[in-house]
Predict the 3D structure of the following.
Amino acid sequence: MRITGLQMDIEWSSPRANIESAESLLQSSAKSDLYILPETWSTGFAIDPRGIAESDGITLQWMRTTSHRLDAALCGSLSIYESDRYYNRHYFVFPDGTYTWYDKHHLFVPGHEDKYYTPGKTRTVVSWRGVRFLLATCYDLRFPVWSRYAGDYDAIIYVANWPLPRISAWETLLRARAIENQCFVAGVNRVGRDPYNTYGGGSAVISPKGEVLSKLSEDMEGLVSEEIDMNSLLHFREKFKVLEDRD
């Protein structure tokens, strides 16, 4: 399976402009089975989402239409207003128009995200073309227990708006999550600035051994793309059975 992450410079509170940016990146991409967009990629990361969060479904509909057109899955999170609540919702969209989602569990308390958003209560694992993906969002990366392998996934997807001053933690934790869970990890971050932060890029695909298979720099839009081989994963887990000794 080939997965491709879109490292974007997100325009603040402008879904249509960000859809155009995503389209431009997709046009330059080789054929993939899965395309991954950053956290809150249509609006930017708004701690206070009032007036910014989406409620009309325009971006989700674009994801559904694009998934069908490309015959590939699309995922990424959106700031959503629904039933008088806000959610940082990580959608996973299939080519047949169906979709599932994961609501971010670890809200960014240091930035007061928890004052506005409702946290998700359950993990979400999605099966797509023979690979099981655990969906996760940004701050979740710091909490290994939440992402701990329980025999239920082959790869973790982390979508993020991870600031540049903490980019070394992003790089280290992506590798740690891959090593401790013997899984592939795809981390897709944004670049550029918004009213609050400068963002660090560094989108990457990590092997189950913690090797960086593909990576983008911290200051450029672009694509990070890699073929993930399930046979090599299964062979490694069978040969080096450290997961059987997990707590």
